[in-house]
Amino acid sequence: MQFIDLKAQQDRIKDKIDANIQKVLAHGKYIMGPEVKELENILADYTGTKYAIGVASGTDALLMPLMAYDIGPGDAIFTVSFTFIATAEVIQLLGATPVFVDIDGDTYNMDTSKLEEAIKKVKAEGKLNPKGIIPVDLFGQPADYDEINAIARKYGLFVLEDAAQGFGGVYKGKKACSLADIAGTSFFPAKPLGTYGDGGMCFTDDADMINKLESIRVHGKGSDKYDNIRIGINGRLDTLMAAILLPKAEIFEEEVQLRQKVANRYNEMLKGYVKTPYVKEYNISSWAQYSILHPDREKVMEGLKNEGIPTAIYYPKPLHLQEAFKGLGYRFGDLKVSEKIAVEIFSIPMHPYLNHEDQDKIVDAIKKYA
Ligand SMILES: *Cc1c(COP(=O)(O)O)cnc(C)c1O
């Protein structure tokens, strides 16, 4: 059994993927070929944003907006600790300071009631300048953007949506990637919309931001590649990766619905045995992961492993306790909810093509060991 079955999807659309790869080999525009623009247009439409820009990874999709906002030493960016390292890594990489806000114990997204407190504290200390907020749409469920955007406006901060896992999700009728000033997603193979390599995309309605990102994507170019008006990076999405994504994008919405069916079935059958995911009534999750809590997860995971069922832990150690962020001075006990969830959570197989037979086997095993 697979944790995420990428092969089942490939079997469906292999002809189209092969044809698109051949098309790129024939036209030879490997860098910034027409498929990149085509994908940007399709996904901007899908998310309901004015502009999209293909980039080299989900990490660059977070780094580049921070560069566009001129983030650097002395700046504070508020984010969560219970996430993938990239979310906070990009802040530190620019010399700015991540300020971690604890998560809600049910959604595992930023606890908005603790955000304002954190901003006030940084302002009172007077050492750092609050500049922005990076909420994460964890496991596919959008964070609470009405609350976050309102607090951001009150303190003059920007909001960068980390939708690496959220692509395809919905918040109060609006698609993920359209919920903040700017959003970044990832096309890493295992993400809801994944390619066969690295890739990512930024989404925004802000024309000035998109101009800056286009420059940053190609080494800070001005009128051309050899006119450099700022420090940028090589942040381009490969033409081949875009070409592979085009047929995947065509079936993506259907796949989100298939994932929802898998999730509904898990929810019903696992109720009472483990803590199942909580999705707010106005949200739709893209189900990047189906994550459950159990006080003795090692026992349950071991039992599943013995029955040939793969599991994974997202995330075993919150970022504020990672060696890489030691310099920030956080200690165990500082973010109690993040710390508690990190020791109980684990994820079980979730993908659009999980059949009833395999799902029943997973559920039976969990019932047996939980
Ligand atoms: C995967 C992920 C990223 C980084 O994306 P890459 O494409 O791997 O660089 C950033 N944030 C979150 C929450 C992620 O899950």
Description:
The protein has helices at residues 6-27, 34-47, 58-68, 86-93, 112-125, 145-155, 207-217, 239-250, 252-270, 297-306, 336-344, 356-369, and strands at 51-55, 75-80, 97-101, 129-134, 158-162, 170-171, 174-175, 182-186, 200-204, 283-284, 290-293, 345-348. It is an alpha/beta fold and 370 residues long. It has two domains: 6-101 and 108-250, Aspartate Aminotransferase, domain 2; 253-369, Aspartate Aminotransferase, domain 1 (Alpha-Beta Complex), CATH 3.90.1150. The chain has a seven-stranded mixed beta sheet with strand order 1-9-8-5-4-2-3, sandwiched between helices. A three-stranded antiparallel beta sheet has the order 7-6-10, with no helix packed on it. Strand 6 and strand 7 (174-175) form a beta hairpin. Helix 2 packs parallel to helix 8 (239-250) and helix 3 crosses helix 7 (207-217). The protein is globular and about 65 Å long. It binds pyridoxal-5'-phosphate. Pyridoxal-5'-phosphate binds at residues 57-59, 83-84, 86-87, 136, 162, 164-165, 186, 188, 198, 200.
